[in-house]
Design a protein that fits this description.
Oligomer: homodimer
Low-confidence stretches of chain A: none
Largest interface: A-B, 24 and 24 residues
Number of strands of chain A: 10
Distance between the termini of chain A: 27 Å
Shape of chain A: globular
Order of helices and strands of chain A: EHEEHEEEHEEEHHE
Chain lengths: 251, 251
């Protein structure tokens, strides 16, 4: 019997140069592949890392949560320091804590929070450009806010999913959906028990066009009611999206 | 007689991948070289760009100011848009305005403002890492603030200059020097009529060691009084430094 010690870690990354979270069969640079390589080097044995949310290529994380097992107990801060020294600058463990052997980063998450950022500025300053998508100066945050206010609830979000596996459930509960606006920036915050693949960017894409009057305000309702993907707008760019937080209750 | 039309532009860049502002004889990637190449392509003639501050390799700018001449008058927003399309993601013109033919971005600047950022966090989140230097958790911003409060005035700052041309004046006037602290971050703001090469990072290097008690609080005074460069600490890393603003009075 080989014993395993489970750890939970909070992870932040700048998604720009990653082909998303998930390890690929090819040599693509993914967060999971680099984290698992660093963990394996530290533990001197292969290690699998499981994330709360499988972010797509170009999507950022401020508070991704992962779990992994080590063959021997290690001091958490020592794990963090050693693994961070093996990770590239654009992905770092923010914290490591011992976890219950049954803890599962994805299945135990009560809710996740995604933030989508746009800027109405004529020029987005370079330091913000990797994290903010452009939106026309005429975009109306008040209109966008009014539309998203009606979004929370338990619904079938299938119309917003890209490449969803047939037969798998597409009903999710959105706990909160808000638009904030400050200066040139408009941001969308979605908090929910789960998100279908591509769902946040699909909603953001419709909202952006709706904010500038290019689609009617009722378009999101219409999409949910009809499930007609032809009513979608192009997905909002990945760079505007950040997985900001994963919540697990008191455990 | 070939007439010239002068323009003034505000420029922001992420310094990480640049070998500083100034064009080099070799093929190093510098902001000036790329901006001049973009302007030349736009104007179909060689264009020289003059900056308010010649930032070093790795130093950022939020509000660098440059001037340049074009052989024919062009709509300022059109210049900005066309040149930005020719610039890489990490350097962009924020604004372009017509300028008096005698306007000079460096000589006419009344004061410049530099910001140096440190973090006391055990892990600096990747999105901040390119802009923030590490400082020990024990660093005391109150002590640093007390020391910099005595810095404004007209003084010979030669001791803080790296590779200063012999015979050139080294007296500068610092209008303001403040330390701010918020959460894990400590930042130093210096505003002055001019800065010697390497001066901000040399001062920041002493301050960082002073903040953690590694050098006595009187060290900056001692450096200014004795001019003894052996009392210096290593310069603070370039990545923490940003040229934040250049001021020209009412013109």
């Amino acid at each position: 019997v080989s014993e395993r010690w489970r750890y939970r870690a909070e992870l932040a990354y700048v998604g720009t140069e990653f082909h998303g979270w998930q390890r690929q069969r090819n040599a693509d640079r993914t967060v999971q592949a680099l984290l698992e390589a660093a963990l394996a080097k530290f533990a001197r044995t292969p290690v699998v890392a499981v994330a709360a949310g499988r972010t797509d290529a170009g999507v950022h994380a401020d508070g991704q949560v992962v779990h992994f097992d080590l063959p021997a107990p290690r001091e958490p801060d020592r794990i963090r320091t050693a693994v961070n020294a093996l990770l590239p600058w654009d992905a770092k463990l923010l914290s490591v804590t011992p976890a219950d052997p049954g803890f599962h980063a994805r299945r135990d998450a009560l809710w996740k929070e995604y933030l989508y950022r746009w800027s109405r500025a004529a020029v987005i300053p370079p330091r913000d450009a990797p994290f903010v998508a452009r939106i026309g100066a005429a975009a109306d945050p008040g209109l966008m806010a009014a539309v998203v206010a009606g979004l929370p609830g338990t619904r079938d979000f299938a119309v917003f999913a890209s490449r969803h596996p047939a037969g798998e459930p597409t009903v999710r509960t959105l706990h909160a959906a808000t638009i904030e606006s400050a200066g040139d920036e408009i941001s969308l915050l979605l908090r929910g028990d789960g998100f279908l693949r591509g769902m946040v960017r699909a909603i953001a894409g419709v909202l952006a066009d709706l904010g500038r009057g290019a689609v009617p305000p009722g378009r999101i309702d219409e999409l949910l009611r009809t499930g007609d993907r032809r009513l979608l707008r192009p997905k909002a760019p990945a760079r505007g999206l950040t997985l900001s937080r994963v919540h697990y209750g008191l455990n």
